[in-house]
Design a protein that fits this description.
The complex is a heterodimer of chains A (250) and B (429). In chain A, 40% of the residues lie in helices and 28% in strands. Chain A has 250 residues and is of the alpha/beta class. In chain A, the strands form 3 sheets. Chain A has a 6-stranded mixed β-sheet, with helices on both faces. Chain A has a 4-stranded antiparallel β-sheet with strand order 2-1-4-5, with helices on one face. In chain A, a hairpin with a 2-residue loop joins strand 4 and strand 5. Chain B has one domain. Chain B has 7 helices and 19 strands. Classes of the chains: A alpha/beta (250), B alpha/beta (429). Chains A and B meet through helix 2, strand 6, strand 7 and helix 3 of A and helix 5 and helix 6 of B.
Chain lengths: 250, 429
């Protein structure tokens, strides 16, 4: 599914990712945990194709396709989805208009037929109910004036509608209260299937109580320092990241 | 002082020579005298510093000959249509005789050479706001136009459309006077269509006088497939108690153009909304200049403009809100935002507040920049290609200015124009 090999990424003169390597299998939920400023968000942006990063070495393969060769919209069409840590507000673009435009754009890029309106409405209704998103919210401009929880639920709704192969959740738990965290986690869990991979980026164990990871990777100073199973997250919760940071510094 | 010292001939002198072959009214003679004294406004006047009109009119065009050209005009709106072709009324294409009860339309030029002796040509009420000769020039030279009088209490649902079409190189001076009696309400569509392939010069004035509790919904659309059109569209508005104007303007033409609005909120609870969108394609220069004077308490003005500037185009927004000492509890809001789609495009924005009352709410804002990169990436990360994402963002940006549209038909009409513009732009880039 996803293979990141020896990835080196800089912003300006500063190297952020320093030989990052990771594999996520189809059906796997991989969690990446690490302290602030270690390059977790950079990793998610680089996979999705945001401007402003210089890739000096390495490759990112999704089912054998090198994503680094593709523009962001073609990465999306190939199945990449990034749930943003800070979803962008777009005043003037209605949620429904955006959702339909996104679904159809991906279908066109893949050479599929566009979705018809009744089918689209039905899908949106089904998925938004699961996420407790009201029709009123869907009539509003995209993310404009949404609360933190509403924004995150809107990200998961998009994920549900777009059915990506690889979902990256960048600190989806930040800014969520317990109830919203549960709703969002349930939404994510319902999308788990043997063909879909997840990369869950978080600081805290808390989110992983709701979304059980198959693998946990500790990231510090631009690369993976240690990999293990779900138990590794619990150990981190107990001892913090100190060991990994000081190892690297020494 | 005469501002055209280097020129022997005053621009548009030929037009005046033709017009004055007939007897002229006092207003027209006086207006011409003021114009010939000062000439066309140039960049040395503060309110014309970004739009040097004199430089743009170095060569003035002749009025169109009176030959009756055959022309097919598609009806774009379901309306009572009044057609001015190259500045001359076309009875055969107009619905003058089909006007409903309570709507009285007269041609300003009916009694031969003279403009009717009508208040519509006395613009002295605006003398504290107007500092140049553009309206004078129109008063002196208006070759055709209408006086539209709406009877008390009449509310029209079907719009009245003034269609100003230009098909050849000429100068066009047209004048519309709309007189709304108490409690009357109309929709007015003002369309300028320049299809001249060899340029055109336009000076069009719409003078709207609103009696208490009357309402005017105005949509002004400047368009056409023709080459560079140099012109000025002026809206003069006087609003009495509780009267309201909701004006939306859309620019989609090639050329050097200014639309200026001088509005007086004369009595309590009068309110005016002036919104606009500028779509500039190549080397266009588009200027919106507004002066709203709050003369009475509890008056309200609201202005929202959006500029989308491509290639080497230039946008200008000048908005002035004047609050007179008597106009306590007035509310004035003004906002202009521009998206520059090229490094060569430029925007000039100058908001001005002159507040002489102490209990008022006035604000203004102005921004200018590229398309927001974060928004663009967000949309692209969901699968929209760059052009589609940009189009969606531009459309959303433009429609912030048209949120006040009351009429769905007009709203859809503008949406389609915008979609066409974006489509053409996409295929060119």
């Amino acid at each position: 599914m996803l293979e990141v090999n020896d990835l080196h990424v800089s912003v300006g003169d500063r190297e952020i990712l320093k030989g990052f390597t990771l594999k996520v299998a189809a059906g796997e939920v991989a969690a990446i945990m690490g302290p602030n400023g270690t390059g977790k968000s950079t990793l998610s942006y680089v996979i999705a194709g945001r401007e402003g990063y210089t890739i000096t070495r390495g490759e990112i393969l999704l089912n054998g396709v090198n994503l680094l060769d593709l523009a962001p919209h073609m990465r999306a069409a190939n199945g990449v989805f990034l749930a943003f840590q800070y979803p962008v507000e777009i005043p003037g673009v209605a949620c429904m208009q955006f959702l339909k435009a996104a679904m159809n754009a991906q279908r066109r890029s893949r050479g599929d037929e566009e979705i018809n309106t009744p089918e689209f409405m039905k899908r949106v209704r089904e998925e938004s109910e699961k996420l407790k998103i009201s029709q009123e919210m869907l009539r509003r401009p995209l993310n404009s004036g949404f609360s933190g929880g509403e924004k995150k639920r809107m990200e998961i709704l998009q994920m549900a509608l777009l059915q990506p192969k690889l979902s990256i959740l960048d600190e989806t738990d930040s800014g969520l209260d317990i109830d919203a965290l549960k709703t969002v986690s349930e939404g994510v869990n319902s999308l788990r299937n043997p063909a879909r991979g997840f990369l869950i980026i978080t600081h805290y164990q808390r989110l992983l109580d709701y979304i059980k990871p198959d693998t946990v990777h500790v990231m510090a100073q631009g690369r993976i320092q240690k990999s293990g199973g779900a138990e590794l997250a619990l150990e981190l919760e107990k001892h913090g990241y100190q060991n990994y940071v000081s190892n690297e510094a020494a | 002082m005469r501002l055209n010292p280097s020129e022997n001939i005053l621009p548009f002198e030929i037009n005046y020579a033709q017009a004055s072959a007939h007897e002229m009214s006092r207003e027209r003679k006086e207006a011409w005298a003021r114009y010939s004294n000062l000439g066309l406004p140039n960049h040395r006047l503060e309110s014309w510093r970004y739009t040097d009109f004199r430089a743009a009119c170095l060569k003035s065009f002749h009025p169109a000959d009176k030959a009756i050209d055959n022309i097919e005009l598609v009806r774009e709106h379901e309306s009572y249509r009044l057609v001015l072709l190259n500045g001359v009324l076309r009875h055969d294409l107009s619905d003058i005789n089909l006007m409903p009860d309570g709507v009285n339309v007269d041609n300003i030029y009916e009694n031969q050479s003279n403009l009717k002796e009508n208040i519509s040509f006395n613009t002295s009420n605006f003398s504290n706001l107007i500092k140049d000769t553009i309206v004078d020039l129109n008063t002196a030279l208006a070759s055709d136009g209408f006086i539209i009088k709406i009877t008390e209490g009449v509310e029209l649902t079907k719009p009245i459309e003034i269609l100003n079409v230009i098909t050849k190189q000429c100068s066009v001076f047209t004048r519309i006077f709309v007189d709304l009696s108490e409690n009357s309400r109309i929709n007015l569509i003002e369309t300028l269509k320049n299809n001249s392939l060899h340029g055109a010069q336009v000076n069009h004035v719409l003078y709207a006088k609103l009696a208490p509790n009357s309402g005017l919904d105005l949509f002004s659309y400047l368009s056409g497939s023709g080459q560079s059109c140099t012109g000025i569209l002026t809206l003069l508005a006087e609003l009495e108690r509780g009267a309201s104007i909701n004006s939306n303007v859309l620019f989609n033409l090639n050329g050097f153009f200014r639309r200026q609005v001088f509005a007086k909120l004369k009595e309590e609870h009068a309110n005016i909304t002036l919104n606009g969108v500028v779509l500039a394609k190549t080397k266009d220069h588009i200027d919106n200049t507004i002066a709203v004077e709050h003369c009475a308490p509890n008056t309200m003005s609201n202005e929202v403009f959006r500029y989308i500037l491509n290639n080497k185009s230039v946008g200008v927004f000048q908005g002035k809100i004047i609050v007179q000492p008597a106009a306590q509890k007035s509310d004035g809001f003004m906002q202009s935002k521009a998206i520059l789609l090229s490094d060569l495009a430029a925007m000039n924005s100058k908001p001005e507040l002159e507040i002489f009352a102490d209990d008022v709410k006035c604000s203004h804002g102005s921004t200018c920049g590229e398309i927001d990169k974060e928004q663009l990436f967000y949309l692209m990360s969901r699968g929209l290609d760059e052009q589609e994402a940009k189009s969606l963002l531009i459309e959303a940006f433009a429609f912030e200015a048209f949120s006040a549209f009351k009429d769905d038909k007009m709203s859809n009409f503008t949406k389609n124009i915008l979609a066409d513009w974006l489509f053409i732009k996409r295929n060119l880039s």
